[in-house]
Specification:
With about 350 residues, the chain is α/β, with parallel strands linked by helices. Strands 4-5-6-7-8 form a 5-stranded parallel β-sheet, covered by helices on one side. It has a 3-stranded parallel β-sheet with strand order 1-2-3, with no helix packed on it. The longest helix has 20 residues. The protein starts with a helix and ends with a helix. It comes from Suillus fuscotomentosus. One of its GO terms (cellular component) is fungal-type cell wall. GO terms for molecular function: hydrolase activity. This is Glycosyl hydrolase catalytic core-domain-containing protein.
Length: about 350
């Protein structure tokens, strides 16, 4: 009898244990955390804060980067035309004399599907300020025709400007797909500094894949497609060359770049090299008079002179379509504050008037 009772107890314990083990999965194990997806309307300043080339001294500046170790167009046997830049670019970094640029074999569509139609205006706002009321003040400046936000989102009211969504990188794919549909805008910007580990950070092949899947089809909806924007250094040039080699059959209407340096002539030479290489219109979607070397930053008067030279070049060059100076924000994130375009009272600075009219 004692043995039978023991057997019954063991059987009951087995049933209880089986019920516990096969119970429902806790709800928190099924939860997907999407808190990393920045929402423009709620927290677009976080997107601006992600623009942290400032934390990688030298990578987005006029100085040279260390020689890339990843595969690039030059490693595939491309020739290397020269572009002479100032000696201030050295600063102890790898110097291919800072003037050896690869010649890729680009395959963009030679003739753009359309051309910018913002009343002939060539200047734009890199806007990280959400629905701030003072956007109307900047939008009213006579030279301003464009706006982008480092994201697919646009302010509720853009006051007649051409709003341009961007596919910044991987984290924005879902938002980009939801928002960028026929009629949402006329232009789209590719990835933000994909050659930079602190930015959208992807290989040229991955960038080509992203472009082909999410951006290239937009040409069929009438969008004007502007390339990814790389930094003005050898790594940026190599990435762009590799992108076009990987992106066979891709449609690209214009080439974008970023420029941080203290010599306006270097800006002109760099833009001219891109135009000569790809035979496409040029956009600059960030630029400032900024040294990321150990040298002194430009004075306010030097920044004014830098701005004047670039403005004259942009306005007088037919193949230079749109320019976005960096600085319409209260926190320039490490960039020389002499480049500020937003005053403490939320009005344009004197420098802003130089660019925007």
């Amino acid at each position: 009898m004692a043995a039978l009772k023991l057997f019954n107890l063991l059987a009951l314990a087995s049933v209880v244990l089986l019920a516990l083990v096969s119970g429902p999965t806790p709800a928190n194990a099924l939860t997907t955390d999407r808190s990393h997806v920045a929402r423009y309307a709620r927290d677009h300043q976080a997107i601006a804060a992600a623009k942290r080339k400032r934390d990688t001294a030298g990578s987005a500046s006029g100085q040279c980067k260390p020689k890339p170790t990843t595969a690039s167009a030059s490693s595939a046997g491309a020739s290397t035309p020269t572009l002479s830049l100032s000696s201030s670019y050295s600063h102890g970094y790898y110097l291919h004399r800072c003037n050896s640029y690869p010649t890729p074999t680009p395959t963009p569509t030679p003739t753009p599907a359309s051309t910018p139609t913002s009343g002939g205006k060539k200047w734009g706002l890199g806007w990280a300020n959400g629905d701030a009321s003072y956007l109307s003040t900047f939008a009213a400046r006579p030279n301003v025709g464009f706006l982008y936000t480092w994201s697919p989102y646009l302010p509720t009211d853009i006051y007649g400007l051409e709003g341009i969504p961007m596919l910044w990188g991987y984290d924005q794919i879902s938002d980009f797909q939801s928002l960028v549909v026929p009629g949402y805008a006329k232009y789209v910007l590719g990835m933000n500094e994909p050659n930079e580990p602190s930015q959208s950070n992807m290989s040229p092949a991955d960038g080509a894949s992203l472009w082909q899947q999410y951006i290239n089809p937009l040409q069929n909806s009438g969008y004007y497609l502007v390339s990814p924007a790389c930094t003005n250094d050898q790594a940026g040039l190599d990435w762009m060359a590799g992108f076009f080699q990987a992106c066979s059959g891709c449609h690209v209407d214009a080439i974008a770049f970023h420029f941080y340096g203290t010599n306006a002539q270097d800006f002109i030479s760099y833009a001219t090299q891109l135009h000569t290489t790809y035979n496409l219109p040029i956009w600059v979607t960030e630029f400032a008079d900024q040294s990321f070397s150990d040298g002194a930053q430009a004075s306010q008067d030097e920044v004014y002179a830098f701005a004047g030279t670039i403005a004259n070049f942009v306005d007088s060059t037919s193949w230079f379509e749109v320019a976005f100076p960096f600085g319409v924000m209260s926190d320039l994130q490490g960039v020389n504050t002499a480049n500020s375009l937003l005053s403490s009272d939320d009005t344009p600075t004197s420098l802003a008037y130089d660019y925007f009219g």
